[in-house]
User: What shape does this take?
Amino acid sequence: MNVPVMNMQGAQVGTMQIDEQALGGVINAPLIKQAYVMYHSNHRQGSSKTLNRHEVEGSTKKIYKQKGTGNARHGDRKVNLMKGGGHGHSKKRVREDFRLDMPVKMRRKANRNALLAKLLDNEVKVVDTLKLAQPKTKEFMDFLKAIGVDKTALVALGVLSSDGSDAGDGVRRAARNLDAVSLCSATGLNAFDMLNHRFLVIGKGELEAWLKGPSSQTDKSAKLAPLGRGASGRKVDDEKKTGEAA
Assistant: This one.
């Protein structure tokens, strides 16, 4: 598959060869959906809850005496039968209760297959160098218009270089004010973010690094010779970020 490579002015300056078989060959909709549901579920905060009678603020005094009033027997006003009282079976669920998981190799296959789906729909815009001299939102909007992005877009930026410089800082500062544009790290591309946006905008170098990086290990090599590990054995990519992307 030949993918056109454009410059910041929207002119095609070359092509990029991408192997469809390395991305799954055909669209595996059930696998993509499973990954999407997992990422979506793992975004839940798990902070919703309701109060029981012991957590409702108020007096614990018995509202009237036990006998002689002709009314039903009651204690305090915080029971679930009373207005303003607690819930009989209060909801107490934390984030971990909603979390789902997938094997690493399945996640990676799903993410690569989602990229294949975007490529087949011509929704991936590859730029030779994604860089702005000045962080101006108007210039970034003109850039999106030049490359044919007229809907929501996910802009994947590179990570900091070894000397601490950030070539994508101008783009990051220029695009953060746009509601229809989301920013992410190129090493953390996942099916959820890609499918939630119409277009994917990414630099050629960042896309090549992602295709050849840890996401390419969808077989036994992921365990025998894993990529993306530093000297301490800790992964240095964003694979576990935003719902454990791979």
Residues 230-241 have pLDDT under 50 and may be disordered. The beta strands are 2-6, 12-17, 124-127, 153-157, 181-185, 199-203.
